[in-house]
Amino acid sequence: MGIVRVLVDGYSLLHHWPELAPGRARHSFHARDALVAALTQYQDSSGTPVTLIFDGGGAPPDTPKNETAKEGIEVLFSKKGQTADQIIERVAHLMKPYGEVLAVTNDYAERETVISLGGSTCSCENFLEILDDTVGDMHVGVAQHNKRERKGYRRAD
After folding, report:
1. pTM of the prediction?
2. What is the mean pLDDT of the chain?
3. CATH architecture of the domain covering 3-146
4. Is residue 58 classed as helix, strand or coil in its secondary structure?
């Protein structure tokens, strides 16, 4: 059975991806928004739903409530007194009857917990390589498609 959902510890991934939103604070709206955009491309390329989970207890007052972006990325913020890790564990447990989840985090204890619940895990560094490969393959495919399409519309002189 394949991966049915990717669960991403948002701030863990942001802290290990300094090239995303350079010069912006890792907890800023701009960094979170750039992460949503990147994960949207991944979801579109892979066809696997993505849930992005942020610790919300200590978040700034302007932090939005839980939402599903127009692009289909589910974005969750934990409540005060709750962590993103707890949400990841709960979702991993609830998704078990439907298939395996992939949890993306650099928290070793969290990865062990998800594995014990029957899920898979991936470090942030490894996931960034997967994301780059998957999105890169999509870009190559789109470029090849566009090239074929342009050839079909050339006029004979």
Report:
1. 0.80
2. 83
3. 3-Layer(aba) Sandwich (3.40)
4. coil
